[in-house]
Amino acid sequence: MKKLLVVLLSVLCVLSLAGCSGGSGNDGTGSGDGGTVVKIGGSGPLSGPAAQYGIAVKTGAEIAVEEINALGGLQFELNVLDDEHDGEKAANCYAQLTDWGMDVSMLCVTTGPSLAVADMYQEDGVFAMTPSGSAPDIIAKGDHIFRMCFADPEQGVAAADYIAAKGLGTKVFVFTKSDDEYSTGVAASFKEEAAAKGLEVVGEYLFTSDNATDFPAAQAQEAGAEVVFLPLYYEDDTRIIKACQDLGYNPVFFGVDGFDGALEQEGVDVAMFEGVYYLTPFAYSAPDEATQSFTAKFNEKVGYNPNQFAADGYDVVYAIYNALTAGGAAADMTKEELNAIMMEQFKTLSYSGLTGENMTWDASGAVVKAPLVFRIENGALVAAD
Would 215 be classed as within a structural domain? Predict the structure, then answer.
């Protein structure tokens, strides 16, 4: 049934071109039946409210492909389409990528679209690694689906552990976006771990995409919260922090990896984020040569600093490259042969990249790496103690 759906969606994409735009590197060379390059496909929000995430992943992946192709040997071609953070459009993009001859995939950038199409990748036997779709249900779709980023529950647990261990406060207020799988997943694991660590969740405000404008900061203040936990993306984080500060209420703010991008917002005074803690596997300010080289190349392309979404996109491409080269892949291999190599190599692969050292993947397709806590000081990220 899903094969028929892919064919029908493919026809719709050709006729309407709706929800399938913004590709890169699509010049028609190579094919899933053996060609001159290995074709990596994927989709993400390249337009709309979540575009910063999609553009970051796409740009990071482009840098990796350029570096790899400059080495000679195995060559890659990248095609990232615009799914506008919409599951139906992600399915349309999948159909177009299938017609293009996609060999392996970066799946989707965000959680909802990844959940919408992961079954299709699994049924067609296409290895897919999402750079930043963090819901556990994504990789639960099957053994061909992998993840580069942390899972939502891991972030909630790590945040509660850090707050308790460092004594940032014992009373916590949580803002949760109830129609977002990412937010609810992180919040649920945080609340469970907070109780286990002796933290008291003194209140929680639930909101949806339709009312994410007027946040009751007074509820958190009146509850005596010393810490405000933000399992959200940076747009909502920014509005909540501003609402608190406008009230003269200055608790410790603690976010997760969706906070990445806050400092790069146009027209926002970054001083408002001074002292904010958040989890991320990557900081562009890190002094190591690999990070600084990547940051310079990213800046040259888009004019601002990379976030962890960009680094995850870069790492996905290199992890794919390492697996294929270790398995003796050649560009003229069929899609089935390439995917067989990927499935075998990721049983034992160890990869060190921008977002972690000696990363491995377990049998479920989950990456094994440690979350890192950073703090914003003088408008820049610094590793927290």
Answer: yes
Angle (CA) 313-283-62 rounded to 5° is 25
Amino acid present at 335: K
Specify whether the CB–CB gap between 122 and 141 falls below 8 A.
yes
- Are 193 and 309 found together in one domain? no
pTM of the entire predicted model: 0.79
Q: Which domain holds residue 119?
A: 2-149+290-368
Range list of β-strands (E), the chain: 38-44, 76-82, 104-108, 128-130, 145-147, 171-177, 200-207, 227-230, 252-255, 277-279, 351-353, 356-361, 367-368, 373-377, 380-383
SS3 content of the chain, % helix, strand, coil (to 5): 45, 20, 35
Extract the tokens encoding 25: 């590197």
Q: What is the pLDDT of residues 68-121, one digit of tens each?
A: 999 999 999 999 999 999 999 999 999 999 999 999 999 999 989 999 999 999
Q: Which of 162, 138, 110, 119 is nearest to 313 (CA)?
A: 110
CATH number, domain containing residue 115: 3.40.50.2300
The structure tokens listed for 171 are: 């009373």
85 and 167 in a common domain:
no
Cβ–Cβ < 8 Å for 230, 237? yes
38 plus 101 within the same structural domain: yes
Does residue 227 form part of some domain? yes
Q: What is the pLDDT of residues 246-261, one digit of tens each?
A: 999 999 999 998 898 8
Do the domain assignments include residue 376?
A: no
Structural domain ending residue among the three candidates 258, 280, 302: 280
